[in-house]
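Structural prep section.
Before we set up the soaks we want a predicted structure of the protein with glutamine in place, mainly to decide which crystallisation condition to try first. Input record follows.
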Amino acid sequence: MATTTKYIFVTGGVTSSLGKGIIAASLAKLLQAQGYRTTIQKLDPYINVDPGTLNPYEHGECYVTDDGAETDLDLGHYERFLNKPTSQANNVTTGKIYQSVIQKERKGEFLGKTVQVIPHITDEIKHRIQILGKSGDYDIVITEIGGTVGDIESLPYVEAVRQLKWELGEENSLVIHLTLVPFLSAAGELKTKPTQHSVKTLMESGVQAEILVCRTEHELPNELRQKLARFCNVKKDSVIQSIDASTIYDVPNLMLEEGLDTVVLKKLNLESNTPNLDQWNAFLERHKNPKSSITIGLIGKYVELQDSYKSILEAFIHAGAENEVKVTIESIHSEYLNGENVKLKLSHLDGVLVAPGFGERGIEGKIDAVRFVRENNIPFLGICLGMQMAVIEFSRNVLGLSNANSTEMDNDTPNSVIDIMEEQKTIVDKGGTMRLGAWECELKKESKAYQIYNTEIIKERHRHRYEFNSNYKDQIESKGMIASGFNPKTGLVEIVEIPSHPWFIGVQYHPEYKSTVASPHPLFVAFVKAAHTYKKKTKNATMAQNK
Ligand code: GLN
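Run finished without errors. Recording the tokens verbatim:
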């Protein structure tokens, strides 16, 4: 344990998408594995108050914390690596900073003063950076600064770091700069110049990078490390190579080999021990040595962008490792799915997940997918909108309510089996107004959900405005789809399942947000297991047929 909280800032240069979040999470993992209470925070320089109103095409998945913050997807990596929940304080945006400074100005807190970027905006940034540290819960706070140095939007953040370094003192803070060392194939050489420029740009704002983490496709030779150290004004052991890895979960070990944790701890004047990565490495062992494989169809409308369903994809990696099964995800665009091609596109799958989403685009394809897997006994997991589609499909094709729909898609439907939540009816603002964060859910004893969770009360995270319309509950249950999870206070239906189907579960919440390496989500684990069982069964049946 440290006596004062230590702060590590992670900046990025040369290009975006270098994986600052993974480096920050990997370093945090190594520090946590040495007994340091570590957390990670992301500062996003955009003006949106949060990414909740951003299209996934723009910004990837919106990640939701227990306390209902709509955040950057990097927070998902932090939780998956550290197995510790994050909160509102772990994601700060320029929108949030300005919003609170302007609110204070209106209240008269700066009476008589001109409100300026320096000191008012930078003070607010410094305050937000230190909220987690001052809570007394952490020895080390890692702050990842979004964007790339030199961006106009990043300037106040870099300035806040410059000021904080003086205020915190030498041994209490540290700047890590993540850069790219590109390989020019025509010249057959790795190039250091972009890194030199990027470090110089940071220096122009008065911040010296103390450790360089260099993303590269090839090993960095000794002389090149020497050159980087000399030109960038850092020690040679502070030039850390971050070579492309086959999985993000290899990065903590790669950073360990490079000694990132040792250099960091030395600079912060903290004791360095051997990190205990036993559990982590046991996961990697299982992940890399699967005994069998399955294919799951992910039906969504943002399938061309990997980041849009980040937490779902990662949850499958955790659940796959737990089952020692390799899970291949086949992304299927719901907009191009219909009653005619659904068999062709889905019949080879061992399980189908219908993804969360908003709006009308692609929903009929999702409904066709649910029908196919329901009628063909293929394991199904529906998440949020996916669960709502399962209810609509069942109402249309089993109850015979051909025009059943959600009022999100058709406000005038005579059979609104999915309807807007009561408290949402008067809400007009779009930002941060959904039903968000972790809510309790009570499981019905004799249900599959109860068997899977093995407990009566669970807590899962939500992000939606619409819900199962309880007026249809009796009718739906009488035909074989049961409600198996409820909000204990309001009675809202949170889980539906079909007991006569081998594995058919729809959940109104997002289990994927809570799956971590150390604690794979039980629903995903059970779903992968069911898909594996299904595969073995269908394979045996085909073999018997061919005999
Ligand atoms: N659009 C649906 C709702 O608001 C589902 C949301 C989601 O899938 N996250 O209720």
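Observations: The chain is about 35% helix and 20% strand.
Flagged for discussion at group meeting.
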